[in-house]
Design a protein that fits this description.
- The complex is a heterodimer.
- Chain A is mainly β.
- In chain A, strand 4 and strand 5 form a beta hairpin.
- Chain B is an all-beta fold.
- The radius of gyration of chain B is 13 Å and the shape is globular.
- The chains are: A mainly beta, B mainly beta.
Chain lengths: ~110, ~110
């Protein structure tokens, strides 16, 4: 079974631009979560989608948004990029979050904001 | 909100020794706790899950304990090998619905040959 895939793997943007990241979960998984990882803050939860609905959101500004499609693929968008948005963005899929199901992480998208 | 501390940012041990990593949490006691391994430039990989009613869980050379009174989990790697060098993260659900996970800052383990 193929793992979680994320595209692109690397991205360089400038301040003020916007970016869209994509995540394809493991086949059959309906829950997709997004995380931001930085050296200073560690791994922080952004939001989680299940069956195209955002069920939970972390403590991030509204510039961070996401969506999930009917095939469970998910995208996250960051608008008006700031230097502090430079990070590794990880998505994780699971059968159904909210149980003890394991989260499977993708390799991440490394975003650099100049 | 839930906060997690892991004993040290970095831990160096000699090959063959047992590595012990600590995860302490505040606030409510979660129904379960997870441990992940992360290698540089990669996403975390799930290792073990332990439930609140389980005192100990083992998987090959890995052992996890969960003390809900102390609000602490210990993660042990016995007979450590250089290939075990990585960052280890503990994670737990931030609420009873488990839809929002909180991760610890991680401990970077280096196993020296």
């Amino acid at each position: 079974k193929a793992g979680v895939t994320q595209t692109p793997r690397y991205l360089i943007k400038t301040r003020g631009q916007q970016v869209t990241l994509s995540c394809s979960p493991i086949s059959g998984h309906r829950s997709v979560s997004w995380y931001q990882q930085t050296p200073g803050q560690g791994l922080q939860f952004l939001f989680e989608y299940f069956s195209e609905t955002q069920r939970n959101k972390g403590n991030f500004p509204g510039r961070f948004s996401g969506r999930q499609f009917s095939n469970s693929r998910s995208e996250m968008n960051v608008s008006t990029l700031e230097l502090g948005d430079s990070a590794l963005y990880l998505c994780a899929s699971s059968l159904v979050l909210g149980s003890t199901d394991t989260q499977y992480f993708g390799p991440g998208t490394r975003l650099t904001v100049l | 909100s839930q906060k997690i501390e892991q004993n040290s940012e970095a831990l160096n041990i000699q090959e063959g020794k047992t590595a012990t990593l600590t995860c302490n949490y505040t606030n409510y006691s979660p129904a379960y706790l997870q441990w992940y391994r992360q290698d540089p430039g990669r996403g975390p990989v799930f290792l073990l899950l332990i439930r609140e009613n389980e005192k100990e869980k083992r998987k090959e050379r890995l052992k996890v304990t969960f003390d809900t009174t102390l609000k602490q989990s210990l993660f042990h790697i016995t007979a450590s090998q250089p290939a075990d060098s990585a960052t280890y993260l503990c994670a737990l659900p931030s609420d009873n619905y488990g839809q929002n996970f909180v991760f610890g800052p991680g401990t970077r383990l280096s196993v020296l040959p």
